Amino acid sequence: MEKFQKVKALVAQVEADAAKFYESGNGAAGTRVRKAMQDLKVLAQEIRTEVTEKKNSAK
User: Second label for 42, Cα 20 to 30 Å away, from 19, 36, 50, 53?
Assistant: First the structure.
């Protein structure tokens, strides 16, 4: 559950940069958004792995 909280926090942090990029065309904000999305991808994969391990160990 800790990693899920990290995902939520990361999304909240990147929200301002996403608005800057999409509404104002700020290129630097776009770079920060891309990095945050990569970090989200890594966290999501870690969560998927944990869920699979927990699900399989319950059998």
Answer: 19
Q: Which amino acid is at 31?
A: T
Query: What is the reported pLDDT for 58?
Result: 78
Which amino acid is located at 27 in the chain?
G
CA distances from 16 to 3, 23, 26, 38 (A): 21, 10, 11, 17
Q: Tell me the pLDDT band of 55, cut-offs 50, 70 and 90.
A: very high
- Token pair 């104002």 is at which residue? 24
Count Cα atoms within 13 angstroms, Cβ side, for 43.
17
Instruction: Please name the amino acid found at residue 18.
Output: A
